[in-house]
User: Fold this.
Amino acid sequence: MGDVAGNTARISALLGQVQSNRAADLVMFPELALCGYPPEDLLYHAGLRRQVTEGLARLAAGTGEVAALVGYPEYADHHIYNSVALLVAGKQVANYRKCCLPNYSVFDEERYFTPGTGATVVDFRGVRVGLGICEDLWQPEPSARAAAAGAEVILAINGSPFEIGKQAQREQVLAARARETGLPLVYLNMVGGQDELVFDGGSCVVEQGGRTVFRAPALEPCMPVVTLRRTAGRLEPDGVTGQITPLPEDVASVYAALVLGVRDYVRKNGFPGVVLGLSGGIDSALTLAIAVDAIGAAAVQAVMMPYRYTAAMSIEDAAAQARHMGVDYQVLPIDGLVEAARTSLAGLFAGLPEDTTEENLQSRARGILLMAISNKTGRMVLATGNKSEMAVGYATLYGDMAGGFAPIKDCTKTLVFKLARYRNSLSTVIPERVITRPPSAELRPDQKDSDSLPPYDVLDPILDALILENRSVEEIAARGFEPAVTARVLEMVRRAEYKRRQAPPGVRISSRAFGRDWRYPITSGYRSVSGS
Assistant:
């Protein structure tokens, strides 16, 4: 993101590779590839505008017999367009401006871009090529305009982020466009992590009848070669290298997205590694596995920070996992820190009963140690909280919520269990007892999550109905949940908004995560049940 010079060099190098062996006539690069997607307010910087202009000129000048389709922000007449340029033989020969600007979910393109108004169809080596960009394919009009202008094929560049089941949705849309226009579609998607977004690739080719004839692997970079030939006067995809990679299973694709998101966040931000608290519970166990798979054991440090309420099995299981995964493992008891805080507050709290205040001292003591390690070593702290906790506020601000990145922030507790099982199906890294024991924060004797929360098989469906579907108490209760429990959960979600605003970013894997696509006021008189 923002590394225009570096992106220009990468694009040039790839073009050079193709040029050297004449592997293709044209190379497609993703949406806004020159500056990165989504660039957000970077677009307003005069320096970025200058670098983009210079970078595009350098790319055009460097093209030879192999042409390039490059996504870039186009600055023209006090407007910014989300555009794609066709660069051939030293010059730019065509340009297309994205017509449909998404302004929902994580997308905010109307804030930055002016929509294009027409089709771009260009003759390229005897083929009438229509151009498209991402959201243009989700609406019928842009493709219809390209077909009406004489296109024989539509080449579309994309920056489409991952969410569960998204690839199947994409291909349904592409099939509809192909059948409507009678044209084959070549769909290119970006791969990589950018803050909380993960772009999952899945580039594909759809023939004019709507059948997918090629699908690239998800969440992996690749350079497939697509051959288009005329058969009986029609342009058809033929001889695509590779195979139709099967659509990924949901849990497997989520795990791969989490690994990619963590890897790119750590590496692109220049951290030498990560550190996390390993409690012996399932959330930190899964986070450790993700971290090791993302950046390697040598770059990961795990710290067990026991207190008087930490169960012996938690200490044993944390040590076993750390040993099995080969990470630097330290045990730092927090008794001294907690007792020092309790002593300092004793006079102020005299006569008051103990409550969650004393529990939170433990969590915040652990946060102090992790942040100190981070400051000293440069390793980023990974927060280990899940979506269920973030939703209802079952997490300690400035304690277990402390960190630079939260890998499983968009994973409900139910999904966390599935992910742990999936990871162990690849190789056993999480002790079985961690997965099967009742979840507990271990901040007081014999504590269980179910003491404070509904069971997760009740809580998580209620949260999904609220967060993903915007359902009301009445609508959720109609699905068989107790109205009082449903109302309590929704009220907990409302009250925890101030905590979520202060939480670290994390990988987005659902259709709605706490972050870019969750925007609620902190101060609000709204109640989910009228009159409550």
User: Anything to note?
Assistant: The two ends are 46 Å apart (CA to CA).
